Amino acid sequence: MSFKKVSLLLLTAALTVSMTACGKVSSNQNSSTETVISEESESDADTGSDTDTDYSDDSMFTNRDKEIGYDETTATIITLSDGNSSSSSDRVTISGDTITITEEGTYILRGSLSNGQIIVDADSEKVQLVLDNVTITNESSAAIYVKQADKVFITLAPDSENTLSTTGEFVAIDDNNIDGVIFSKDDLTLNGNGSLTISCAAGHGIVSKDDLVITSGTYNITAKSHALEGKDSVRIADGTFTLTTGKDGIHADNEDDESKGFIYIADGTFTITCDSDGLDATSDIQILGGSFTIQAGDDGMHSDGALRIADGTIQITESYEGLEGKTIEIAGGEIHVTASDDGLNATDGSGSSAMGFGGNGSAGDDVYISISGGTLYVNAGGDGLDSNGNLYVSGGATYVSGPTSDGDGALDYEGDAQITGGIVVAVGSSGMAVNFGENSTQGSILVNTATSNSSGEVILTDSDGNVLVSYTPEKSYSSVVISCPEITTGNTYTLTANGTDTTIEMTSLIYGSGNGMGMGGGFGGPGGRDGMQDGNDGNFPGGTDGMPDGDMGTPPDGGTGSTTDGEARGFRQGNKPDRMPGQSDGSESNGSDNGQTSL
Predict the structure, then answer these.
(1) Which end of the chain is less enclosed by CB atoms within 10 A, N or C?
(2) How far apart are CA 517 and CA 409, in angstroms?
């Protein structure tokens, strides 16, 4: 968004889409193996920087992380009971309702404690805790506290139902700042075929000060702060998660090492209701699959680094900004975003404010949105796709119901916007409307409607009457950007919006430049002249590709400009420089013959 608003309309209208995409139609738019822990062979997972981190299951998870088996005949049994807990092993010490495990091994816990605690204090050894229908409540500290160990595995016994809770404010018991129901100073893995319910009145659900890994199990977490937190990383291979939080649903935060503090999700089912971000990371977020339903008070997914989505089903039903990161890469999946501000926002957290206008600044190539696959639906109160750098589309299908206010646009970018493949239909207000830019190799059309409150289906047909693309926006609109591989220079097309037909002759690849600030637009006029324009002003034939190839984590090659220092607004806000509707990017225009058509 060009500037943040004090009050924003929350958009929750139901999505109705009907699309025929260049020749094809899309409908509308969800065994245990016994193992003794001391016999395991485990290699440490790679935690390199963004440029050398191997984001793959083999790197993120060890075989032991996924192993849910245990040998009960050789394990140590701990029976929990208020004032009467017991264990026959000298590796377990019991003091009142505090049970401390001091050596490596597998420990099976059964029973309940109304105000107790399990402590793992095992130096540099590996410990497995098996929760077999366990209930532990603690009034002022963690129910399970890993004080020291090499790594701890918490396994949910098959079909078991386990409950852990902290009912009051956290009170210090040593030098560590314990603030979670499960709190670990070292690497922590959870797995199994049972369920775990966690409630925390004053802090977090599960915390690891190293890597937090979850590979299986069912988790129901209610917490005043974050539900899942890992300092170095949160890595999830699978599982079912219902997270209700006063802060973030899943949080990774390492301010000291920018190569850490990342979130990696391979699969799983997630229902997240949170007052802040659904997912939040100080480094990267990598989504390879899974099903997500997120209702967020702030961002649906927020990354200070790269936000990459390769596959999965994502429903962000409520958010301030839907997807936010320094870079946003979408290569697959089906994504629905509802945002009161920007649908997608790529920003590095800085902005330029030359006398309050954005026209004097340009963007760096290291900030971008790249869409190379998948299907994306955006309903945004602010900008639909907002890049404080470059915008690249090389594949997939993208549908945007953008803003109704003239201070925002369905598409918005500070650098270059290139389309070389895929389908885009982006509708919204006309005041800041922009088209794709001169380096595009696929045709793109921008037109304004005759009225500012148009509604109804948008349809593009070729000269033979074949429907290339159709889309039913979720609200009224006054401009349409539409692109499809079938749009080529020298051919004629008919665009239907709100029942009105307009014939468009493509004399160049880009038809209509727009009024906004992107590289594809000039100063422009208030909406173009009535009737047909030739679409040549501000339009250029396709240039070099420069597009990312869709590989996850591969940045684009090209773009233009560099971000001025300006006024830092803070990455959390993700603001671009303020600008006024119709403000020029420096290109000349007579204010009327801007290559747009008014329907």
Answers:
(1) C
(2) 10
Per-residue pLDDT band at 258 (split at 50, 70, 90): confident
Element holding 57 (H helix, E strand): helix 57-60
SS3 66: helix
Q: CA triplet 284, 285, 288: central angle to 5 degrees?
A: 135
User: Phi then psi for 37, rounded to 5 degrees?
Assistant: -60, -35
pLDDT top residue among 123 and 35: 123
Structure-block tokens of residue 391? 């915008």
> Which of 71, 63, 156 is CA-nearest to residue 106?
71
Residue type, 32: S
Identify which has the larger pLDDT, 252 or 584: 252
pLDDT of residue 452: 66
Tell me the C-alpha distance between 35 and 487, whole Å.
60
Per the DSSP assignment, residues forming a β-bridge with 80 are 111
Amino acid at 493: Y
Please work out, in degrees rounded to the nearest 5, the angle formed at the alpha carbon of residue 35 by the alpha carbons of 122 and 264: 75
Q: What is the torsional sign of CA 452, 513, 331, 282?
A: negative
Phi, psi of 38 (to 5 degrees): -70, -15
Note the pTM of the prediction, 2 decimals.
0.81
Question: At which residue do the structure tokens 């069912």 appear?
Answer: 218
Taking only the tens place, the pLDDT of each residue in 296-330 is 999 999 999 999 999 999 999 999 999 999 999 99
Q: What residues contact residue 58 under an 8 Å CB cut-off, 6+ apart?
A: none
Count other C-beta atoms under 10 Å from residue 545's C-beta.
18
Task: Using the structure block, give the residue that is written with the tokens 């003239």.
Answer: 406
